[in-house]
Sequence to fold (370 residues):
Amino acid sequence: MTTNDKVIKTKLGLLRLANHLNNVSLACKQMGYSRDSYYRIKDLYDTGGEAALQEISRRKPNHKNRVDGALEERIVAIAYFFPAYGQVRASNELRKEGITISPAGVRGVWMRHDLETFKKRLKALETKSAQEGLVLTEAQVVALEKAKEEKISIGEIETLHPGYLGSQDTYYVGNIKGVGRIYQQTFIDTYCKVAQAKLYTSKDAITSADLLNDRVLPMYEEQGVDLQRILTDRGTEYCGKIENHPYRLYLDLEDILHTRTKAKHPQTNGICERFHRTIQDEFYAIVFRKQVFSNIEELQAELDEWIHWYNHDRTHSGKYCYGKTPWATFLASKHLAFEKQIKNVPWRTVDEDATEESNTKEQNRQFSEA
Fold:
């Protein structure tokens, strides 16, 4: 029995019950219908029989109002040729060709093809160009370049080599019974995506500096690479008066430039934000279901193992990784950092170096004799 048959059977049951009871109000009350519905059903039955009792859905689309196929193809083509145009400008362009359609009509067609927003039209254009090898027009190139500039303006980071820019942020892990609140200090090299992380029971400037001193700078020194700049948010653990702020004092001592994100724009530090989502899904969500930790050292040991796996074994699809692991990317590209460091060293002749060394020895001799 189809749904329509069930609807007809229910309506016939209402009519028969009313005749049997000889009471319309009582029949409607028992069947859950109103008196108006009863008399409408009765009129339909008296006029056309059981066939007239079929459910007439008002949700069926009226295809008579839809534009014809050729016009719909042209409206879709406009979305590819001029992706930066909105529905009003697209309507005007079609009007130049003698096609009259309202902006709302253009939007309706675009919505059926998932092209109603600028981002969706750009994505469709990129896909179409990649699949069919299309030669882009000037308008299409301008639109794609505009989208690229917008990505940069909202926080897409441009980095040149390992050590060029590091990203640091604080992540709240949770509350462990008997230990208290646990915070994670996170550092990521924005070029090769090598990560370092350490757990603390507090969130302050000292712990922020400790991560750099204990994990980050030793890693760079071992490879002979200088860390030039660090990007952080505007939290109190990273920002303050330099004369009494341990983190800023440490950066100044190590000659590392400090850049802060734009206020109320956490996406500017999106590399750390994305890493925190990864570590939550792939590490914390799993390890807390496998083991109960009684102290922070046990959790730190598990975290160190995962970080080593992330850096050395987990392939990364980042901008400069190309499917390699972060550590492999670091080793393969650190020559770029060496080239930059050599260019920044002031030019000195051999004679100048020898003269300076001689003067230094003479000063030391005079000091010892005195």
The first strand starts at residue 166 and ends at 176.
